[in-house]
Known about the structure:
Residues 1-35 are annotated as: Disordered. This protein is of the alpha+beta class. It has 15 helices and 32 strands. Strands 3-7-1-14-11-12-13 form a 7-stranded mixed sheet. Strand 23 and strand 24 form a beta hairpin. It is globular. The model is unreliable at 1-12 and 772-781 (pLDDT under 50).
Amino acid sequence: xxxxxxxxxxxxxxxxxxxxxxxxxxxxxxxxxxxxxxxxxxxxxxxxxxxxxxxxxxxxxxxxxxxxxxxxxxxxxxxxxxxxxxxxxxxxxxxxxxxxxxxxxxxxxxxxxxxxxxxxxxxxxxxxxxxxxxxxxxxxxxxxxxxxxxxxxxxxxxxxxxxxxxxxxxxxxxxxxxxxxxxxxxxxxxxxxxxxxxxxxxxxxxxxxxxxxxxxxxxxxxxxxxxxxxxxxxxxxxxxxxxxxxxxxxxxxxxxxxxxxxxxxxxxxxxxxxxxxxxxxxxxxxxxxxxxxxxxxxxxxxxxxxxxxxxxxxxxxxxxxxxxxxxxxxxxxxxxxxxxxxxxxxxxxxxxxxxxxxxxxxxxxxxxxxxxxxxxxxxxxxxxxxxxxxxxxxxxxxxxxxxxxxxxxxxxxxxxxxxxxxxxxxxxxxxxxxxxxxxxxxxxxxxxxxxxxxxxxxxxxxxxxxxxxxxxxxxxxxxxxxxxxxxxxxxxxxxxxxxxxxxxxxxxxxxxxxxxxxxxxxxxxxxxxxxxxxxxxxxxxxxxxxxxxxxxxxxxxxxxxxxxxxxxxxxxxxxxxxxxxxxxxxxxxxxxxxxxxxxxxxxxxxxxxxxxxxxxxxxxxxxxxxxxxxxxxxxxxxxxxxxxxxxxxxxxxxxxxxxxxxxxxxxxxxxxxxxxxxxxxxxxxxxxxxxxxxxxxxxxxxxxxxxxxxxxxxxxxxxxxxxxxxxxxxxxxxxxxxxxxxxxxxxxxxxxxxxxxxxxxxxxxxxxxxxxxxxxxxxxx
Length: 781
């Protein structure tokens, strides 16, 4: 029998039909894999620590061993005379602005007359070998006059000025409603939040290469390259056009990522020597140099009526900024604004301060400000529930916020705020089984298999927390991003200076173009400062602002593509659709491919996205300071050995307000990572200091949660109520579980032990119950 057979209908000898080959799914709403996943798993991803250049020199930085001291003399002659040393730079070699900073330019490139924190840069060296550079740094002779460090932020108000700008960075006195209002029931609490480190997977590294025009190129894992370029240009005394920042692979970022002092040292050394200069910081240098979460002291007083409805919240919030301002003013604004949580509060009196100390620098981390106050206001809700004899979830249900309610700043919550639904989802989720009291299950108990506790001393606690964060910048920040989309043949390219830090922007950009243009092969170009700025990679802004810019540019290209066809067939472009690379009309008359419509032409468009403006808080803490907000509810189940104070988090059930799911797998990974980071803040992460001296700045002295510490994270509900002012209606995903998780863990430990739990991370002695029989809300595990 002769003839041809259609491959789609051919059958093998066994008679089993061969299904047609389906094209891989793409576009929004699909779990598209990350473009760099293969390179990262194969070890070919281009991290800054792997960079190389001909004639390379190595850098080292001399850092202060003291938290506060006056520099009496600085002698670099012995270091400069060592064989192989090519340059030594100090404050005297900074040609431009001596001060820099993310928020306020109050931080010197190198300390001049005084060091203000342990690890502050004093000098930098370039040599032909990294060991030579480190030896030269050790050979620099510095004579110090030790000064008493101010490490208690409460003493900063009366202490002598630690900085020419004074010790007070910002004070926000918020007044909302009637300050004289009181409730029938009142509870008070004191809360302390520790210093969490971003602990990036890869420590800071970079390469600076001099340019023929007298400028310099800096290759580093920047999360805001244009801001870093402007900062460097000002320090180098150069026009910004003569400084270029090229973003290398970012090995994860949960903060601003880089110690800016490394970039500035590298650039100065490259300009001085005329050679490429590289620095790969040790883990200790990384801990000492970059910013951390603000340690915070919070005093709260909650007033409620007899039914548990909140009447007034009073709070004092004191944030430790460390030696320099950085983003502390921004963090304080978030803390004060969200100090009452996602609850309806008719009256509020909040005092917030951010002060300088001689402690390590504080700055941006996921949920800055919001995380600290969430731990406090949720602790207060647990206290109110206990005082009124209500269940912890019930006291929250009676007070939850909804769309249209007011923040204590007077701003109306115009975005979707499904807080009641989130709380109901985690409350109704099934509880995990209790571990069986058998030797085979002992590893499930707190302390693990080698734990010294007795199973009979373990109590199970169930706790709840509701959290909220703002999206994008605040208080008048100009949030704008620019993107270009080019199409040539069957390939599209996205050019946008939005840095991929692990948040998934590169994948999202591909999905947007696939959805809009029907082109499967989409590439995202590398990022440098020759491109228009896209802003910082935080607060979910690249999903919103940069994603919005990509969408607008793609739609402009779509119009260019469809207009000739629409004109030819006498119809509007709105009557044409693109699906799976094919262009069809509503009536089926037109059917062609995108490649055929392009006919060899290259199309491109550039667009911007700028959300609606915000305003600074006024002298009473009032104002529309935020573009949008996201909410989360978490129920934590924890087993606690009430004799030893060991804690094992069994399960975290999460319900989150996401607006719209753009990439299901990526979204769930972001939420799980955020919960795990919050778990670290709750139980173990705290960069400890003694009178400003960092203790054990390494990954043996600073504990991080591992896979063995991570609980079962169950995402029980993703509420897709789209925010109409956001592109695609999506909301920030990773910050709000970081904010909410520590408060949920603390709530569960309170339930298991009956102890107040006012400090994070939770110390073992705080989790020891006063009486094994006096556990009001716990169940024996």
